[in-house]
Amino acid sequence: MARTIGLGAGGAALGWLGRPHVLGVEKTGATQMVKDIERSILWNGRAGGTTWFHPRACMIPGGSGDKCPISFMTLQSITGSDVFGHVHWSISTDLGKTWSDPKKIAALGRKPARQGLTEGVCDVVPEYHAATKTVLAMGHNVYYNKKGHLARPQLERYPVYVVRSAGGEFSEARKLEWDDPRATAIYSCGCAQRVTLPDGDILVPLAFGAKGREARSVCSVRCSFDGKALTIKQCGNELRGTVKRGFLEPSLATVKGRCFMTIRAEDGRGHVTSSEDGLNWDKQRPWCWDSGEPLTMSTTQQRWLPHGNALFLVYTRKADENVNVFRWRAPLYMARVDLDTLRLVRSTERVVLPLIGNGVSNAKHVARMGNFHTVAAAPNESWVTVGECLPEDGWRGDVLMARIQWSV
């Protein structure tokens, strides 16, 4: 059951730093297109029970006469560093106000693997495919050792997906096949926002790397999808990261017929590029303010938030209030992208989900929010969802939603 964070005991206990008297709805009229931001708790993992992570939703159109679409979400438990449980699903029929109890997706659990390891699936993103009236849920595989910890090194990693039919049945898990020699160690679309084209083809961003090379590259591939099988048809140009693990977790969006990619990196920046066809990308550049000053980031993903003819980015960055927070993974910010310069308009920056706790003197107890997702829920409403990560507090955390209301 969703609960709006207000001034009562629950909201006060969370302590929205920097928002001492406005915990529920933030008025943001200064940003012309953003009217309100309302924050709520979907699952209260801090109070006990399952701590849900990777909450990611998509919208399934309702039938004739329905007032709102079905909201379909995937999520899974977290019990340690990158230690995730069985992938579950939940739905909402009242535009995200209440959610059904999570249920397992049978094919997205754990199974025995080589070398005494166990193979699971994580970083799943569901998206509705209108041409086939299905939901394509894609993540990637991951390996755990006999103690249940993340195995190091990992075996070969690749995208894994299931399909939810119009009738609500789930398929078996399938692997997205790609035999490119540059991707012998890993190719992944985990956590990624994809783009469905008018003809039903899907643009999927990939991070990939060969055995013996730590730094990964990114590209996009164009895939056909018939409601059952996803097949790569074309591959775009390679953008290479060079620092540590290189480029990671790219995501795509389209606005005004143009494609955009945002890229997590390990060089103290996030990166952005654009393409006319979603395959051939310009050289990436670091995210900067409209003044030209680069944002200081730390190996954390970003998410697109398109609205009408505008494009927003949701992200984390270094700030005074979070200076000691791990990878500055709180708060979550949003700002409008200047489509001509691919820079963020600083005057439009707003806090989407505030930092919880004290990010300077007691940062180890600050809830990290680096694995978040966005979805256009309605013509005048978008959501940002995130599962809190609190390693120092038994990995307990809430699932939070920011409901962004747009001006007409």
3D structure, described in words:
- This protein is an all-beta fold and 408 residues long.
- The protein has one helix and 30 strands.
- The chain has a domain at 1-50 and 311-408.
- 1% of the residues lie in helices and 44% in strands.
- The strands form six sheets. Strands 1, 2, 3, 28, 29 and 30 form a six-stranded antiparallel β-sheet that branches.
- A hairpin with a 4-residue loop joins strand 9 and strand 10 (134-144).
- The model is unreliable at 1-31 (pLDDT under 50).
Could you name the key traits of this structure?
disordered N terminus, six-stranded antiparallel beta sheet, mainly beta, about 45% strand, about 400 residues
Set out the fold topology.
Blueprint: E1 3-4, H1 9-14, E2 25-27, E3 34-43, E4 52-60, E5 70-80, E6 83-92, E7 103-104, E8 111-112, E9 118-129, E10 134-144, E11 159-164, E12 174-175, E13 186-188, E14 195-196, E15 202-209, E16 217-225, E17 230-235, E18 239-240, E19 247-255, E20 258-265, E21 270-275, E22 285-286, E23 303-307, E24 310-315, E25 332-338, E26 343-344, E27 350-353, E28 372-378, E29 381-387, E30 399-406
Antiparallel strand pairs: 1-3, 2-3, 3-30, 4-5, 5-6, 6-7, 8-9, 9-10, 10-11, 11-12, 13-15, 14-15, 15-16, 16-17, 16-18, 19-20, 20-21, 21-22, 23-24, 24-25, 25-26, 25-27, 28-29, 29-30
Mean pLDDT: 91
Radius of gyration from CA coordinates: 20 Å
| Number of strand segments | 30
| Biggest beta sheet attributes | 6 strands, antiparallel
Structural class by SSE content: mainly beta
Q: Which of globular, elongated, flat, extended, rod-shaped describes the shape?
A: globular
Q: Which segments are poorly predicted (pLDDT under 50) over 5 or more consecutive residues?
A: 1-31
Give the % helix.
under 10%
Number of helices: 1
Q: State the end-to-end CA separation.
A: 29 Å
Q: Strand content of the residues, in percent?
A: 35-45%
